[in-house]
Design goal:
309 residues, alpha+beta, six-stranded antiparallel β-sheet
Length: 309
């Protein structure tokens, strides 16, 4: 429309040749932008379709969908006094950034960097809370609820995104608030990969409780993001494990790769989606480079008290 108006306004002074040049330039610009829009739409669609998880037949496992919690306040913790709150039905989950232990909260306008975080799960009848020295990162993006361990009580998954660039933008950490005999336990899994729009939870066979499909980027023992394949070249790989929620275990969740003989599942990161297991890594390399996701998990029992106490 702007091109047409420009030509109309200037038609009485521009020669036919110059008019043609202006029109050609306008059409070129429109073509570039429309082509860019189509390219961006294609890329967005490809990114949405990217998945490296192994496939499961409906007879083996079915997708389990947790309930989405609503973010009602904040989404980042960095400075003392900041907070993030989710509404999960009758309960809320809140995160509060605190000063270091023994330090007073600075005056308003002089807030410092938070050194501790308080996590609180609450409803009209009780609160369960714990104070940590920090979180894997300060971006608290999503939360979901479901009875994950089969004890009839709601459990919670919170996703902390990295908000980085490139492939690093897909890394995240998961926080679990899991019911147990004493109340609730906080357990953390870091260095995971996002599986939007929600964590992949599966129900195997007749098992009523879901299993989480945990995706991680494979790292070598020296910390590199690439592993040398049997072709002599270095590649990026993803590895998948199955996590089962069990209130009888010390951390409330355990690795249960025995549920499927393909696990731990390894696949190569490529530009096109793939669900195929890689043949570039030998079994000995897989065993040597596999890391138990439970080994360095932070896990602590939350303090529970009745409302009003």
């Amino acid at each position: 429309m702007k091109c047409a108006k420009f030509v109309s306004d200037c038609g009485d002074v521009l020669s036919k040749q110059r008019l043609l040049l202006v029109l050609a330039k306008c059409l070129l610009v429109v073509g570039v932008y429309s082509g860019q829009a189509r390219a961006e739409a294609t890329v967005a669609q490809e990114e949405m379709d990217y998945s490296y998880a192994p496939l499961f037949s409906a007879q083996v496992a079915k997708r389990f969908e947790p309930k989405v919690c609503s973010l009602i306040e904040g989404n980042m913790l960095y400075w003392v006094g900041e907070s993030v709150t989710f509404n999960c039905g009758v309960r809320t989950i809140s995160f509060n950034a605190l000063a270091g232990k023994g330090k007073k909260k600075p005056p308003e306008g002089e807030e410092g960097v938070a050194e501790r975080v308080r996590i609180r799960l609450a409803d009209a009848t009780f609160t369960a809370e714990t104070i940590l020295r920090g979180l894997p990162n300060g971006f608290i993006d999503y939360a979901w609820s479901a009875d994950l361990n089969g004890d009839g009580k709601e459990d919670y998954i919170i996703e902390l995104g990295s908000h980085g660039n490139g492939l690093a933008a897909e890394t995240c950490s998961y926080l679990f608030l899991l019911s147990d005999a004493k109340g609730y336990r906080y357990t953390e899994v870091s260095e995971a990969m996002q599986t939007q729009p929600s964590p992949i939870l599966l129900q195997f066979g007749g098992n009523p409780t879901p299993v989480m499909l945990l995706q991680r980027m494979a790292k070598s023992s020296n910390g590199s993001d690439k592993l040398r394949g049997q072709d002599g070249k270095s590649h990026v790989f993803f590895k998948f494990d199955l996590l089962q929620f069990d209130p009888a275990t010390p951390r409330g969740v355990k690795v249960s790769n025995q549920l499927d003989s393909r696990f731990p599942f390894w696949t190569q990161f490529t530009e096109k989606p793939s669900h195929a297991a890689t043949n570039l890594l030998s079994e000995s390399v897989k065993r040597a480079e596999w890391r138990d996701p439970m080994k360095n998990m932070d896990s602590v029992e939350m303090k529970v008290k009745a409302a009003g106490r």
